């Protein structure tokens, strides 16, 4: 009887987990709240096989309120599915910037790479041309200072600005390479996403980075290709013009001996011949205005939001002026310069939705104040705004088996699987990709194949090695990316 009771309770928890998955996928916030109030540990449930959690489904569908609910329930924000994708990767792939903003505010790890081709959230956002997601991802690397563009172009070196800006960290993040040495700029250029190419270059993406011989990646262009080679393959003239204007070489030769013009000919992009033909000496390249997605105030408002919160349900006092944008919440921040006051949530939305550089006064990348059109470069916290003390306990445990109570006083605790993940990237010649160790309760002896709850990788082996079939899948994935389709979507 005790055994049957345990089995029935486990199946009941599984059914509740599937209901939460359905609610997260369909955007049913009330159902999700009810299920999590009934059992908060359901937030760590993951589907069998593909190991997609409710957080993955809600992120892929753009339900940012459910994402916030799950994060506040204690789910691991960097939980991976069987492909190694996190919720942040899913949100960037489908362009759900509100979800990306929520995950960034909760400090999601943007450096995690998937198991299929080594791509990060930044690569997926660039591949699909989601410029707004790119800018939100880099919020912690770009300071809210008026002369950021001059500092980035090495035209200004004030001591105050250097303290706030680590150029080397930004350069390393934005030029991080996936398998084959392909950067986010390569991906955006290949698929003809002009806004993303422009933004990445403005933020310091190198136009001279080249791909490498991987051995597991099908590269129809050839190793040693620059972003301009990829833009020539994609056939977008505007992308080629931006890259050339920013210093891309028209005479660079890849491993196949092709210049960008030769790549355009091989892919029958005859309309690019005039653009990719080396210019006469002294001919000036085209000039482009700053990217409309540059938006400098992000770092300042993200820091305030993390410290003081950004969702407030407190009722306003009759003598308190509400935010002039939403007319619902109290003002918590002020725009530096004009000092107009807003609530933190509206300030975040102003930064996220800004896509124009037309301001009355302000440097490139500043956003226009909705009241006076003054260029906002930074937000400052009001004196009356107090910090919140709220430490959400996070765990990497997944809901493999729920804690069940049998007849009498005997209980069975959830088997713990704590992965010790070493995520250092290895050169293509080595096949070892992740190593992890599982520590289970001494009182229980379970087969390691039941440990489906690791947050970073499958706990099927103590040493995970790429097989030939996985290498084949990675090669197919890059082949699909050359034809502007990606097979890294979420499984339903």
From TrEMBL:
Classification via InterPro entries: Ankyrin_rpt, Ankyrin_rpt-contain_sf, Multifunctional_ANK_Repeat, RING_XB3-like, Znf_RING, Znf_RING_CS
Bilayer-spanning residue ranges: none
UniProt keyword terms in alphabetical order: ANK repeat, Metal-binding, Repeat, Transferase, Ubl conjugation pathway, Zinc, Zinc-finger
Catalytic reactions on record: S-ubiquitinyl-[E2 ubiquitin-conjugating enzyme]-L-cysteine + [acceptor protein]-L-lysine = [E2 ubiquitin-conjugating enzyme]-L-cysteine + N(6)-ubiquitinyl-[acceptor protein]-L-lysine
Pathway it works in: Protein modification; protein ubiquitination
A single MF term (Gene Ontology): zinc ion binding
Taxonomy, superkingdom: Eukaryota
Chain ranges of the RING-type domain: 323-373
EC number: 2.3.2.27
Protein's recorded name: RING-type E3 ubiquitin transferase
The organism of origin for this protein: Daucus carota subsp. sativus (Carrot)
């Amino acid at each position: 009887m005790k055994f049957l009771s345990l089995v029935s309770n486990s199946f009941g928890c599984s059914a509740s987990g599937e209901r939460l998955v359905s609610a997260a996928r369909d955007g049913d916030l009330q159902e999700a709240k009810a299920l999590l109030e009934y059992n908060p540990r359901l937030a760590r449930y993951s589907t069998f096989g593909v190991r997609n959690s409710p957080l993955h489904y809600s992120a892929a569908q753009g339900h940012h309120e459910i994402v916030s609910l799950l994060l506040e329930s204690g789910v691991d924000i960097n939980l991976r599915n069987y492909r190694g994708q996190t919720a942040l990767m899913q949100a960037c792939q489908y362009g759900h910037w509100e979800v990306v903003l929520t995950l960034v505010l909760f400090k999601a790890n943007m450096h995690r790479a998937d198991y299929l081709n080594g791509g990060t959230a930044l690569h997926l956002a660039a591949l699909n041309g989601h410029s707004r997601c790119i800018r939100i991802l880099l919020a912690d690397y770009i300071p809210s200072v008026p002369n950021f563009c001059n500092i980035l172009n090495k035209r200004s070196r004030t001591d105050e600005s250097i303290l706030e800006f680590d150029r080397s960290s930004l350069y390393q993040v934005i030029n991080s390479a996936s398998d084959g040495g392909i950067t986010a700029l390569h991906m955006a250029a290949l698929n003809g996403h002009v806004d993303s190419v422009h933004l990445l270059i403005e933020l310091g993406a190198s136009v001279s980075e080249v791909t490498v011989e991987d051995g597991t990646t099908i590269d129809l262009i050839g190793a040693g290709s620059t972003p301009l080679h990829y833009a020539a393959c994609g056939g977008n003239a505007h992308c080629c013009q931006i890259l050339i204007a920013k210093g891309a070489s028209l005479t660079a030769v890849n491993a196949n001996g092709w210049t960008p013009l030769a790549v355009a000919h091989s892919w029958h992009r005859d309309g690019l011949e005039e653009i990719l033909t080396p210019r006469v000496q002294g001919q000036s390249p085209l000039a482009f205005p700053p990217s409309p997605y540059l938006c400098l105030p992000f770092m300042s408002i993200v820091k305030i939001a993390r410290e003081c919160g950004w969702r407030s349900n407190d009722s306003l006092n009759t003598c308190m002026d509400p935010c002039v944008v939403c007319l619902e919440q109290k003002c918590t921040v002020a725009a530096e310069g004009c000092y107009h006051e807003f609530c933190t949530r509206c300030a975040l939305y102003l930064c996220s939705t800004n896509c124009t550089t037309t301001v009355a006064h302000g440097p490139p990348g500043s956003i226009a104040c909705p009241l006076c059109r003054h260029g906002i470069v930074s937000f400052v916290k009001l004196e009356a705004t107090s910090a919140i003390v709220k430490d959400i306990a996070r765990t990497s445990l997944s809901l493999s088996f729920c804690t069940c109570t049998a007849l009498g006083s005997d209980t069975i605790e959830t088997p713990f699987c704590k992965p010790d993940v070493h995520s250092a990237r290895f050169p293509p010649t080595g096949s070892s990709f992740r190593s992890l160790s599982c520590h289970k309760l001494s009182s229980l002896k379970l087969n390691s194949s039941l440990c489906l709850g690791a947050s970073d990788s499958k706990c099927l082996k103590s040493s995970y090695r790429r097989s030939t079939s996985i290498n084949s899948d990675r090669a197919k994935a890059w082949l699909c990316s050359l034809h502007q389709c990606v097979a890294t979507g979420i499984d339903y």
